[in-house]
Amino acid sequence: MQRPYNPLIVIILLSLSTTLMMTGHTMPYPVLAPWLIEQNISMGMLGWVSFAFSLGNFLAAPLAGQLVDRWGRKPMLIIGLSAIVVVNIIIPFFESLLTIIVLRFVLGLFNAGIMPAALAAAADVAPLERRGAWIGYVTGGISIGLIIGPSMGGILYDAFGFAAPWWISAGFALVAVVMVVLYVPETRVQSPVGEVDGAEGAHSLWHLLQNPPRPLIVLVSLLWLDFAWTFAWVATEPAALAYLYGNYAYTATMFGVVVGVWGLATAVGEIGLGGLSDRFGRFSMMTIGLVLHSAWYVGMMVSPQFTPMIAMAVLSGLGAGFITPALGAAYADITTPDQRGRVASLKEMIISIGGMSGPLFSVFATDAIPTVPMFAGTVVILLASAGWMGWLWRRRVLQVN
Length: 401
Known about the structure:
This protein has helices at 7-26, 29-38, 46-70, 73-90, 97-111, 114-125, 131-160, 163-183, 205-210, 216-247, 252-273, 276-280, 282-293, 295-302, 306-333, 340-365, 371-395.
């Protein structure tokens, strides 16, 4: 029997948990580029590190979504957060590229349930009229982690070397584990015996694909957006790092600050403005958000110096802050409670496909395609996606009542 809980308190706890999770998860990010340079390893190898994580996430996502709906939201949060603690403690003892790639694959396997569980829990407790805003609070926690993690990671690496960011990040993730264990309640509603829980295979991803949420055009469009902007980021990341570190003398601290500003702007958009999709519609905010988000790639094309990129990070981050709550709320709008874990895992699978295909593209393209045309292509993808979301907005294919 579930104990009573205050829905808003659950959202706040989930937001704090995702903040700590993302702080621990992203703190080592600024470490890898300068470390590869020190080791005389091609920057393109960053693509394999990203690919390994995404591959693990992709392979585990179907089972993770099934377990989120069967076991509950809380156990999957605990498993995923605990994996961050263990992996980030281990990596500095080896300090080899192969070890990092293997352990990032393992981390991807065990992290596959974190976001499906967090988003399903948020959708479980959020009232329909506040769904976009409350999901924005949870995803805003991720963005706050993006502020703290890379900035602190860059400073720790420059001051103390390779091991410090990994071990401090493990500490942040451990705090998140304790918080979930002690304070986050289980929000999954038990279905009556003989319905969902009693149906053979009803919790499987295959069952969901046979009976997908409707309207189907909305589901496919949301999945496309998740793929497109994930692919855009990871496909261009190695080229961006090589460009910034090699041509514009960025340090780990400088890059961490730029990413931190991006995260701050995203958090402002998600936490402060996430509720706009409740008033003006999900697709309207996705359309505006995609246009603003493309500013990061425009900046890389025309003004990649540190100060202009701060401004581009603000615009791009605000765009991401408009997109994420609207996207999460739109998934919740078309799903039932017993579908949410599996739909969220399907979302994670699509993100993982973007996360795998992007790095593979970057491995072959970083040294072959000039930087400016690469970012120009990314802008085209994002603006074309914005045009499609704008068309869906005008057609009013998704009504929020």
